Amino acid sequence: METSSEGWSYVGPHPIRFEPPDIVFCRPTGYISAAEVRGVLDFNATIAKQLGRGIFYLGDSSGITGYSIASSLEIFSSRSTQHLRGSAIFGANFKQQAQNSAVLRAARLLGLPMMQLPIGTFPDEASARAWIDELRRKG
User: Fold this and answer.
1) How crowded is the C-beta side of 73, counted as CA atoms within 13 Å?
2) Domain total for the chain?
3) Which end of the chain has fewer beta carbons closer than 10 Å to its terminal beta carbon, N or C?
């Protein structure tokens, strides 16, 4: 993982950064591999450990060109959820929205731990951030 002078780190080609007080913001670019998903999840866990509390993940899907179902399932099946308080994704195109919906339905049916967290999809960044603010207010 590399860090730029603008505060962005990179997991592969994907910029990611911590935004105080408790958001990890990622702008995936291009194709996302399962290894890169693991890298993002590790970044989230590292930040949460440094803070001593859970974080919110905010993802901008507008730059994604593709990913496999295996990459999506990596998010839901292989990691502990103790470092996340919620996940908000925005900017997904129609194909990504359909794939995300299918993966979320499968994860719910399988009872995967990630599905205990609030997960929302939004048309734009402002609505995703507003949702995170509301979750934060609710505690």
Assistant:
1) 8
2) 1
3) C
